UniProtKB/TrEMBL annotation:
Taxonomic source organism: Sinocyclocheilus grahami (Dianchi golden-line fish)
Record-annotated HMG box domain positions: 47-115, 152-216
Single GO biological process annotation from the record: regulation of transcription by RNA polymerase II
Keywords linked to the UniProt accession: Activator, DNA-binding, Mitochondrion, Mitochondrion nucleoid, Nucleus, Phosphoprotein, Repeat, Signal, Transcription, Transcription regulation, Transit peptide
Subcellular location: Mitochondrion matrix, Mitochondrion nucleoid
Protein known as: Transcription factor A, mitochondrial
Domain of life from the UniProt record: Eukaryota
Subunit structure: Monomer; binds DNA as a monomer. Homodimer. Component of the mitochondrial transcription initiation complex, composed at least of TFB2M, TFAM and POLRMT. In this complex TFAM recruits POLRMT to the promoter whereas TFB2M induces structural changes in POLRMT to enable promoter opening and trapping of the DNA non-template strand. Upon metabolic stress, forms a complex composed of FOXO3, SIRT3, TFAM and POLRMT. Interacts with TFB1M and TFB2M. Interacts with CLPX; this enhances DNA-binding.
A GO MF term: DNA binding
């Protein structure tokens, strides 16, 4: 499941970064040899980052695939091209590598020129922007890593569960209005109407507690203690100390999951509470 998910995320990102959403913007070009484009300097903004060899290939081949498969979605085109790219020999990839190298060289030059004409304030602002971008990228990478390591999903709140169960039929034409009407519904609910969702949320907390416990144990086993919650790390250390020194005052922070009713009986009454 994971590789497919990653592939589709990658395809989406690529569609976005190449601006492939509007088919009108796609250059109509049947040539296979990559075209070297100059960077736009008319906007006054920083030059666009150069395309990688793969991105150059996607941009080149996109119109062809689009023409050969009428009605195909952009994401599917990119997915097709990703598969094709993997099948290419080094020799076949070479022209795209060359184009990418050339545009990277050109990018460096344009970037130097761009930086040289900035005011000190603009330079400072650019540095801040860059730091934020790096932080964002780091956060995304971390999230991806945690996903690939199968980190359990955080427990959902009662409202969250209510929302996902009723999103489809909610009043409203878009995400925002639907959310708003669901939030209003939730506000109007009395304790009895909320009870089922509160129970489900409690169950989800237990689920999370159990899953995160064994996940963290597994992370320690594979040497990724850095991914274990700080509190738990301390608890583990404390436990070890206790085992060695038999300190009586050490409190083990890991509490046993309290016994809970399953809530499946309540789940069945969901239909009756609907309007
Ligand atoms: C809560 O609302 C439901 C549905 O409107 C109603 O049947 C029930 O009597 C209410 N319960 C309380 C405690 O007000």
């Amino acid at each position: 499941m994971a590789p497919f998910g990653l592939l589709s995320v990658g395809a989406n990102l690529l569609v976005k970064s190449l601006g492939l959403f509007s088919s009108a913007s796609v250059v109509r070009c049947s040539c296979v040899a990559p075209v070297l484009k100059s960077f736009s300097t008319t906007t006054g903004g920083p030059p666009k980052r150069p395309l990688t060899a793969y991105m150059t290939y996607v941009k080149e081949m996109h119109p062809t695939i689009s023409r050969q498969n009428p009605g195909i979605k952009n994401v599917d085109i990119v997915r097709k091209l990703a598969q094709q790219w993997k099948m290419l020999t080094l020799e076949q990839k070479q022209p795209f590598q060359d184009a990418s190298s050339a545009s990277r060289e050109q990018y460096k030059l344009v970037l130097e020129k761009y930086k040289a004409q900035l005011t000190p304030a603009q330079t400072a602002a650019l540095a801040v922007e860059k730091r934020q971008k790096v932080a964002k990228r780091k956060a995304i990478r971390r999230k991806k890593e945690l996903n690939s390591l199968g980190k359990p999903k955080r427990p959902r709140s009662a409202f969250n569960i209510f929302m996902s169960e009723h999103f489809e039929e909610a009043k409203g034409t878009n995400m925002q209005t639907k959310m708003k009407s669901l939030r209003d519904d939730w506000e109007r609910f009395n304790a009895t109407q909320k009870q089922m969702y509160i129970q489900l949320a409690e169950d989800d907390k237990v689920r999370y507690k159990n899953e995160i416990k064994s996940w963290e144990e597994h992370m320690i086993e594979i040497g990724r203690e850095d991914l274990v919650r700080r509190k738990e790390r301390r608890a583990i250390k404390a436990k070890t100390t206790k085992d060695i020194k038999k300190k009586s005052k050490v409190r083990v922070l890991k509490a046993k999951a309290p016994k809970k009713k399953t809530g499946t009986a309540v789940k069945k009454t969901v239909e009756s509470t609907k309007k």
